[in-house]
User: What shape does this take?
Amino acid sequence: MSESNTVVAVSGLRKEFVVYKKTGRLKREKTVVAAVDGVDLRIERGEMLGYIGPNGAGKSTTLKMLTGILTPSAGEVRVCGLEPVPRRIALTRRIGVVFGQRSVLWWDLPLRESFDLLRHVFRVPADEHAARLRRCREMLDLDEFADTPVRQLSLGQRMRGELTAALLHGPEILFLDEPTIGLDVVSKQAVRSFLAETARRGDTTIVLTTHDLADIERLCKRLVVIDHGHVVHDGTLDALHHRYGSRRQVVVDLEDPWSGDLDLGGAVGEIDGEDPRRVTFSLTNGASTAGELVARLATTVGLRDVSIVEPDIEDVIARLYATAR
Amino acid sequence: MGAALARAGFRRYSTYRQATLAGLSTNIVFGMLRMYVLVAAGAAAGGVMAGYTVPQLGTYIWVGQGLLATILMWGWTELSDRVRSGDVVADLLRPVNPVWTYLATDLGRAGHAALIRLLVPVLFGALFFPFYWPREPLSYPLFGVSLVLAVLLCFACRYLVNLTAFWLLDIRGVVSLWMAAAGVLSGLYFPLAFLPGWLAAILQYGTPFPSLMQFPTDVAVERGGLAGQLERIGVQVAWTAVMYAVVFYVQRRAMRKLVIQGG
Assistant: This one.
């Protein structure tokens, strides 16, 4: 891959924080905690990458170092070919940032005016600004609340405004820190479709942190999992499930109580709860597929209802910690 | 960019009509109280106090009441609030030094305040109380210059007070200190000429406070004639330059602290 296609290049990235612990009336002990501890990462143009991990894993710290608002303790960082902290001002024109819990909009001005101000702050040519805004307005339904002061917007509306604000100067890469946090289902879907569409156009690289399984499944082809400051996985979601043996589950409601003596090609049934007719099968890798299992059940015992439970990302992460330690 | 932000600042404040009205009536009521006290003192002193005639004291008070809101001496904690909440990172994600964006917005605010909060108390005072209108036509533009300098300087002082939030997080103590110092030392409560000459001189040249209020009002009442007006404006310019140098320096330190230690 040529250098010009690499949007983010990170090697040996490390961030230490000093934490003071009180040990006596006046004494305190100084400990150094590494929030990010030797992260290597390369992101190519047009990628959509999910950066996940539990609270305190180092996700936001990494994003802050990539966006130039935190100086790394050690390691190399290049975003759009620039070193973020020393070149912060130049970098701001080339990146877009949404922090789910922060706002870049003007609190007491209508959304429309915030967008107009951003055009001036970033010195975007009027026609480019108008074209980008038009696209966002259509896709995110901004018109119904464009004249409402930002302080009166609902969280979902505000987040749609934040996304627009982050894109109006045409960034090469968009950093999103938990963009769907606290949103209702409809707003989450609006945000996701918008991001998926933005990614599909291919000219904007997207890096997203989230705790939301659906965000990851819907959006991220590539997944980087970080824990205790280390990258513990870098690959697709499937590869992650495969590696940590997470299983899809088939939950069936049978006509008769489950006896457990059927040969179902390796799938093991378990009754959970009170009802002996409700059985949960875990599909292990290499065993029969959900289709085969359901077909076999339908021919051998009466089947009333079927549902397939996808493995939970939190479950996957939980497994991952167990192996990482 | 500056003009757009200033327009936004103007609009932001013009939407809060009730607050403007409430602030305006408070200004006027306090102006009347100050007026009666100083007029009584002026009359007791035989009509002239420390070189101010009673109409000049009237102008001093009403222009001062208007200045209070125009320079916004008290009650601006927007930056420190953003530091405390962490929203300040949004300011770092823009291709402009935050000093300029906040200043541009503040100039818009000041423009709105000058139209309502300065003009109305001055007209009120001129209508109902002894009032000294500047004799020289040049005094009006000079007052304008002095006013703009006071706004710029006051913004720098407030911004500096707010910057301490990067170290202290809670700046209530610093704000109280600033409020007390600015109130007494700027000449808001009484003209600094009432003080012994040496003390007034130290304050006027050695601190930025008189440049906020004493000097613009002195320019309005034509104290010391043209030479006095120009001297005061000169001191204002000097203090404004000094304070902005300090603001940029402290902000660089604050940013370094932020980007190294984290929010």
Residues 225-261 of chain B form the longest helix (37 residues).
